Inverse folding.
């Protein structure tokens, strides 16, 4: 399917930004330079990205949308169990491993900037929200933040995302030399042992939270 004009502009901005970041370093490149290299205005840049950091992570929203779609294909919108979430993680990890060079290229730029490292970790909060939504069986369009989710869902989501984070960190550090699926399975098995039983006892303590 042919790209729309908006999609083509967005792609040009991403390509221009990465070329400049690799040539000059992330911190030295300005939004005006990215826009000029892509042949668009500064105003057009901000139609596609909220800030310079976001252009480094251009597919984050699409990946979370794909996560919700994959979970709901299995659950029909009902509350997801941990086994379902682990299965979907395997699917996502395989996709990321197939884009190994792109992922490592992206991370080489992230490592140049404290602001980007902080932005990267902030993305984890959005992933925790996405996971918690599926644990609760909520509609993603109707949940604005983690505050909308139950305490049980928030605890399990925090455990899952926090378990996967060091797997990706070491994968980047070792230039993607090990299997993300296998390592993720190991980390998740160790991390979620027991949290799936959260429910009755937790509800007794905090009510319906």
């Amino acid at each position: 399917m042919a790209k729309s004009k908006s999609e083509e502009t967005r792609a040009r901005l991403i390509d221009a930004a990465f070329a400049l970041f690799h040539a000059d370093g992330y911190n030295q490149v300005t939004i005006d330079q990215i826009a000029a290299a892509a042949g668009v205005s500064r105003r057009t840049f901000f139609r596609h990205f909220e800030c310079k950091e976001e252009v480094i992570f251009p597919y984050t929203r699409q990946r979370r949308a794909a996560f919700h779609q994959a979970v709901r294909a299995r659950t029909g919108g009902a509350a997801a169990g941990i086994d379902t979430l682990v299965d979907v993680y395997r699917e996502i990890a395989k996709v990321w491993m197939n884009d190994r060079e792109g992922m490592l290229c992206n991370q080489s730029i992230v490592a140049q900037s404290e602001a980007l490292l902080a932005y990267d970790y902030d993305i984890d909060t959005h992933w925790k929200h996405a996971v918690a939504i599926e644990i609760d069986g909520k509609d993603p369009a109707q949940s604005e933040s983690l505050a909308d989710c139950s305490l049980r869902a928030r605890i399990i989501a925090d455990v899952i995302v926090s378990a996967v984070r060091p797997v990706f960190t070491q994968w980047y550090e070792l230039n993607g030399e090990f299997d993300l699926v296998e390592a993720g399975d190991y980390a998740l098995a160790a991390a979620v042992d027991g949290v799936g039983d959260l429910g009755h006892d937790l509800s007794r303590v905090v009510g319906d939270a």
